[in-house]
Design a protein that fits this description.
Blueprint (H helix, E strand, L loop, with lengths): L5 H4 L12 H13 L5 E5 L6 H13 L13 H8 L5 E5 L6 H11 L9 E6 L6 H12 L5 E7 L7 H4 L3 E4 L5 H15 L2 E2 L1 H10 L4 H14 L2 E2 L1 H8 L5 H11 L3 H13 L4 H20 L11 H11 L4 H19 L4 H13 L7 H16 L16 H10 L5 H9 L11 E2 L3 H11 L1 H7 L3 E5 L2 E5 L5 H4 L5 H13 L4 E4 L4 H10 L3 H11 L8
Parallel strand pairs: 1-4, 1-5, 2-3, 3-4, 6-7, 10-11
Antiparallel strand pairs: 8-9, 9-10
Helix pairs in contact: 5-6, 8-9, 9-11, 10-11, 12-13, 13-17, 14-15, 14-16, 16-17, 16-18, 21-22, 21-24
Length: 542
Amino acid sequence: MSYQVLYRKYRPKVFSDVVGQDHITTTLSREIETGKLSHAYLFTGSRGTGKTTCAKILAKAVNCLNPQGGNPCGECEICKGIDSGAILDVVEIDAASNNGVDNIRDIREEAAFAPVNCKFRVYIIDEVHMLSIGAFNALLKTLEEPPAHVKFILATTEVHKLPVTILSRCQRFDFKRVNSEAMKKRMNEISEKEGFTLDEEAAMLISRISDGGMRDALSTLDRCIGKSKEVTAQVVSEVAGITGKDHLFSLAQAINSQDTAQCVDIINTLHMGSYDMERLCDDLISHFRNLMIAKTVKQPETVLICTSSEIESYKSQSGKYTLETILYAIDLLQDCLANMKRGVNRRIEMEMTAIRLSSPKAQSDNKALLRRIADLELQISSGEIKISSKEEKKEKPAAEEHEENKTKKEPSKEIEKADSSASSEDYSEGGDIILDLWPQILTELMDINKAMWGVLVGSCAFIRGDFVLIKCDNPTFSDFIKTGNNARSVREAIFRVTGKKYRLGIFSDSPSVKAEKKEKAKDPLEELISKAQGLGVNVTVE
């Protein structure tokens, strides 16, 4: 006898054998047991989750001569005849190849006749979404009011393509993807019966690869058995084709190191080895997607389809990237893939994209700028870039330094008062150092105190000794910084960025600048009166 593949050999015969669909099998068993059957059923869900299997079990159960708890007995002539295909009262139709109006008219004509061997004539229409509009319209009336001896079971993977008129006439059941634990348990049962070994990691990897489809899991397991009777994670990786990702890790590392020459060299090596550039781009998108999952998900092994060693590699490499850089890379690679599909030179397009990714300065759009800012923040937080809060002092002769210190104006005691009460005193701009890190300080402040950040938007700051003097044109600033913990929030943001504790002060224009502004703001009427009085004219304003 010829070999029978595992998913056919171990296809469930009763509802209790169906894996991961208890919410459906329990309901169907109860309906059969109580005799409260619907005339039309709709089974929806992804591939390999048990839709057609449950349809066949239901067809047997409603016609079984000796049903047991809502399940077919599997021993009577009806059950055996349906399994062998000898009984023609249960008809399975593939709508992908029988999707015309004439096919549905044939069903309508046959449905008018009573069944020959069974209690019910059952029509199982698989992939029903493939029917044409005319076929759906021809099915409507029969589906709504079929003869008492007819049952319809529709199955589809794309329920959104069905007309609402069909949906409203059926009792709908949604099949879920089978979870990993249920799959693993089922595969272990089969491995014991078949006499091969399946280790824990291999079973988990197969369940991830199958994407919730039990049929896909057993098909993968079948191929693994053909390679080795001892199924390990390495065997599964080789059979499923998920090995050989070293070039992707190397290319991603070169991109992160901004090594343009290395990126081009890797692409050239792969091209000379007949590696399709469109496939490389697609693989690289998947690689950065895995980095995204590793960076954002607490347990990426529950999502990623790879071995445990590769998961550790993804975790390690994702730590060297910012999330903004990963998302930017995915966007740029997707644009590259779209350009390749339009017929441009694939190799050149791949090289251009790799250069853009490894040379952030080559891009000037908003996403590229955000990526560069995020990379800079990562380098600062990791200590790769050291921040100095003030300029390095050059060595000077002692006499010159003494003379400079003598002429330099020291902060007055009122500045210390500004740290606690934020009083508005005037400070000279001479000798002050512009605080270039003020935008980053405001970014930190946004996380600490959004209200204070909103007041300081558009402001700048200067360093004078141990003081940070804030210059802000917002009229509410001087009052706002006195209330609550606003001053403390600003000091904390400064410390996070500079690593040094400063006291706060409010910066104002120098006396000469302030006098100039006051002169400009003088009342024009007062100026006119002053000039008139200078000419000897007596002017009185009431």
